[in-house]
Amino acid sequence: MPARLGRYAVRRRIGSGGFATVWLAYDEQLDSPVAVKVLAENWTEDQAVRQRFLEEGRFLRKVESPYVVTVYDAGELDDGRPYLVMSYADQGTLADRLEILGLTPGQALEVVRQVGAGLQALHVRGVLHRDVKPANVLFRTVEEGGRSEVRAMVADLGLGKALDMSSRLTMIAGTPSFVAPEQAQGEPLDPRADEYSLAALTYLMLSGRAPYAHASLAAAAAPGAPPPLSTPDRVFPKAVEAVVHRGLAVDREERWPDVTTYVEALTTALGPGATVDASGPWLPLDPDLTQPGARPSPLLVSQPLPDPVPPRRRLGRRILGVVAALAALAAGAGAGYAVEQRQDAEVTVTDSRTGTLSVTVPGDWDRARSSRGWKAPEGGGEFPALSVGTTPDWTDVGSTAQGVFLGIMPGDELPEQVPQHPECRAAQDPVDDTIGDNAIRTVVYTRCPGGVTVERVVQLAANRLLWVQVRSADRATANAVLDDVHAYGFGL
What we know:
alpha+beta, Transferase(Phosphotransferase), domain 1, eight-stranded antiparallel sheet, six-stranded antiparallel sheet, 10 helices, globular
């Protein structure tokens, strides 16, 4: 742990993500705790990543709103890494709260009001957020009228873009269960994309489940109608259903004209019974949340919520769910890998955390790698994973880069469907085979932006699957990489 970052005395690490580490520090001149976000060492020389990091600070500085995380300062360390000094959210995230207790309708409405105010402030100043989700809503203790109060703030503009740039966006990104269909399709965006995400967040807070459990951005591009908001345990007036469903309209022209109008309509529909007690904090102060976990980062993607369908149907969607988590892993910190063997033409890389996975790849693929474990979509804890690629964004839709991802995940049978690739112009029929005692299913996609993409799922054990994705310029290289995949302890 560094003693200081610039003029700020470091207290402890709050967390780290793919591009940055966030530290709790102390501003001794102003006698105040702050969060200092520092670009990871392995991205210092990458000008595109550096620019993206700095743009987040510039977007946040454009907005003076109590409901948007404030950037107080920016600087550069002696080793050239930039950092941002921001407000410290001592009460954790909305994801924390939903995991612990959930929210009452009045508390949910208050979150919508405050997050909506933050998003509207961004929109007025010409900025889209593009990644509204529970992990990007932070809670902070403030002093209001002589008492402690909790305030919700919009955070992490790693995917934020100026509205005047939206027509030129080519990167498709976002969290599948909360992203607007037009964003998943890569279309030009306007503030109604953030309104859609806020409506999805509303649905989650009120019902206790997300409106969709999209496993990929491809699924989010054509979502269909969400299930009814009400359940036998949580019944809401039809007016509330109508407001939220309009916010989730697939056609943006059918949504509310802006975030403020959506929030006003929801407030009216919920009625006076959905107000919080003004005699105390609308959200109880939780001392356990003053030790927050990892903060959001530009490409850190939350896992999709469980799909409310029987397990057998859910299995195929679970394999699709790795697409979202793959983006996070592929952009992860480069620490935690071991190169066992290096030749001029090939490199064998092993995940050093568990020693479970290894793969041999062409030498020029060994540029962006991570062996951080991952949380498979069906839960059950953290599992070994390994990613190696020619660039950090090799998994992006439309990327021409090459790479391979390996991930262990729970599963008692091969899925009926592997991840789809609409960016590829042709797909071969699935091929079922065995490697020793391990059943495998392989699908090859051709005429892709970078050449070919191969999806393979292997039944490693009675309750474990291995998912492999290879993107390569040609089929021969992809086959060679597939032949050199090993899962130790499973006979593969």
